[in-house]
Amino acid sequence: MPGATAASSKRTSRARDEAGPLSRDAVLDRALDVINQEGVERLTIRRLAEALGVSPMAIYRHVSNKADLVDGVFDLIMSRASVTDHDEDDWLDWLAETFLRMRTALLTQRGALPLTMGRASLGVQALSVMEDVLAVLAKHDIGPPDAARIFNHLMMYTLGSAAILGPIIQQDAELADPGERTRRIRANFELLSGKQFPQLTQHASELAQSLRDTAFSDEIRHIVMSASVERLKP
Amino acid sequence: MPGATAASSKRTSRARDEAGPLSRDAVLDRALDVINQEGVERLTIRRLAEALGVSPMAIYRHVSNKADLVDGVFDLIMSRASVTDHDEDDWLDWLAETFLRMRTALLTQRGALPLTMGRASLGVQALSVMEDVLAVLAKHDIGPPDAARIFNHLMMYTLGSAAILGPIIQQDAELADPGERTRRIRANFELLSGKQFPQLTQHASELAQSLRDTAFSDEIRHIVMSASVERLKP
DNA sequence: ACCTGAACACCGTTCAAGT
DNA sequence: ACCTGAACACCGTTCAAGT
User: Fold this and answer.
1) Does residue A112 contact residue A76 with C-beta atoms inside 8 Å?
2) Are B72 and B28 in contact (CB under 8 A)?
3) How long is the CA B29 to C1' D11 vector, in angstroms?
4) If exposure means fewest CB atoms within 10 Å of the residue's CB, which of A73, A99, A187, B173 is most exposed?
5) pLDDT value at position B111?
6) Predicted confidence (pLDDT) at residue B11 exceeds the cutoff of 70
7) Which of B14-18, B33-37, B57-61 holds the top average pLDDT?
8) Mean of per-residue pLDDT scores for chain B
9) pLDDT at residue number B93
10) Any atom of strand D under 7 A from CB of A227?
11) Which residues does chain A have within 8 Å of residue B222's beta carbon, measured at their own beta carbons?
12) Domains recognised in chain B with CATH numbers
C-alpha cells in the first residue's frame, strides 16, 4: 500500500494526537470537514488549527495564506465531485449529467459557492472539466466557432443556477428533499403582495418548478441542441 | 424642495461635521461610496463609521446588523442601475438591454457580486425587476408554462456570467476597455500547457470572445427566441 | 432620542523563540 | 525542520453610560 492519499487521511476524533507531521492534504481534508460540519463561515485558520489539534501557526507551514487555503479546498471539492467521471452513451446525456454533478457539488458542499466566487484564476480541477467538455463537443463536430459559445452558456447557466439556489437551500436548514424545497420556494412567491407583484404570484408554481434538478438537466440538453441546430442552417 | 433623497445626500469630505442626524439612506449611501472607492472587503461597520465621522455604534441605530447593511446596499445598487427603466421598441432589444444592464451593474459596482451571493431572500428592487420582465413576456403571449422557464434561464445566465467575469475584471486593476479585457483572458488560456489542455489553448480566442458584452446580448436574444420557437411546435 | 466608550469574543498574520 | 506564544491590527456586537 504505497502512499496514503488525502482521502484516506480521515480522522474521527477532533484532535490528532497520534499521527505524524501535518501535510497539505491533511490540512485541506480537515478544512473540508469543518466546512461540511459547521459551514464556510466557520472555516478560519484558528478554527482549523483547533480541529487539527495544533497551533494556528502550524497551518502556515502548508498553506501560504487563507486565500491559498480556500483555493485548495475548492479544488478538493471539484476533484471529489468527479464531475466528468461517468460514461453515458448519448453525448447529450453525458453533458446533462456532467453539469448536473457540477451544480450538485456546488450546492451540497455547504458553502462551496462562496469559495467559487471571487476566484480570479481557475484551479487545475476546474480547467480539466472545461477541457473534457470541449473534447466531447469536438468529438461531435462542434469546433471552435460554436464550442466556446455553447460551453460558456452551459457553464454560466450552471453557475448562475447554483448561485440562486444555494442561499435558498442553506436558509431552510436541511432541505434535501427536492419536493419540499420546491414547495417552500413556491410559497415564498405566493406570499408576496398580489397587487405589487401580480406576475410573480401568478407564476409562483412554475418559477419554483424550474429550479428542480430535472428542469435543470432538460435545459442543459436544450441549450446544446438549440445551439447545434442553429449551426446546421447557414 | 421637499425631502432630500438618498441620492442627494452625497458628501465630498470624509467627515460629516455639519449635517443633521444620521439617516438610513445616508448610511447606505456612504456604504456604497466605501465599496466603490475601497472595495467590498473594506466595507465594515467600523470603517463605515469612520467614513461618516461617527462612532461604530451610531450605525446600529439605522441598520440592525451587518447582513441588513449588505442587503440595503445591494438594493441600492439595483435601484441605481435602473435595470428596466428604458424603452426599446422591439421586445427582444428591451430584454437584451435589461439583462445587459443587470450584468453591468453586478460587474461595475466593485464587488456587488459577493453581496448577491449568500442572500436567501431577494430585495424589493430585485423582485420588481423580475415582475417587469415577466410582464413583458406576458405581453407577447408567453405565459406561465414557458415564461418562468425563460425567465429563469435568462436570470441564471446573467448571474453566472457576472460570477465568472467579476473576479477576472477585479484582478487586473481597471480593465474598463473591453478589447484589452478580451485580450488578457485569451492570453490566460493560451499560456496553459498545450499538452495538458489542448482544447483550452485551441479555443482560447473564442472562449475570450464569448465573454464580451455583445456576445452576451446576442445570447440573451437567442435564449428568448429558441424558447419561443419551441413553444410554437406542439 | 441619539450618540459614545469600554469591553467581549473573535479574525488573519508577523515575528521571535522554542525543540 | 517543525511547531509554539505573544503580539498587532483588525472584526461584529453587547451593554451601560452620557447628553
Assistant:
1) no
2) yes
3) 22
4) B173
5) 66
6) no
7) B57-61
8) 84
9) 96
10) no
11) 226, 230
12) 2-63 (1.10.10.60), 87-232 (1.10.357.10)
What cell does B207 get? 472562449
Predicted confidence band of residue A120 (pLDDT cuts 50, 70, 90): low
Q: Residue A106: which pLDDT band, with cuts at 50, 70 and 90?
A: confident
Q: Give the Cα separation of B136 and B92 in Å (integer).
A: 10
Assess whether A67 (CB) lies less than 7 A from strand C: yes
Tell me the nt nearest to B46, Cα to C1': D11
Task: Please tell me the predicted confidence (pLDDT) of residue B18.
Answer: 43
For A141, the grid coordinates are: 463536430
What is the count of residue pairs from A and B with beta carbons less than 8 Å apart? Answer: 158
Between residue 59 and residue 98 of chain A, the positions with Cβ below 7 Å from nucleic chain D are 61
Confidence check: pLDDT of B3 > 50: no
User: Strand D: which nucleotides have any atom within 7 A of a protein Cβ?
Assistant: 2-6, 10-16
Distance CA B182, CA A191 (A): 44
**pLDDT above 90: residue B7:** no
Pairwise CB contact (< 8 Å): A114 & B116: no
Residue A97 and residue A216 in contact, taking contact as beta carbons nearer than 8 Å: no
Helix (H, G, I), strand (E, B) or coil at A130: helix
Please provide the DSSP assignment of B95-113 as one string: HHHHHHHHHHHHHHSTTHH
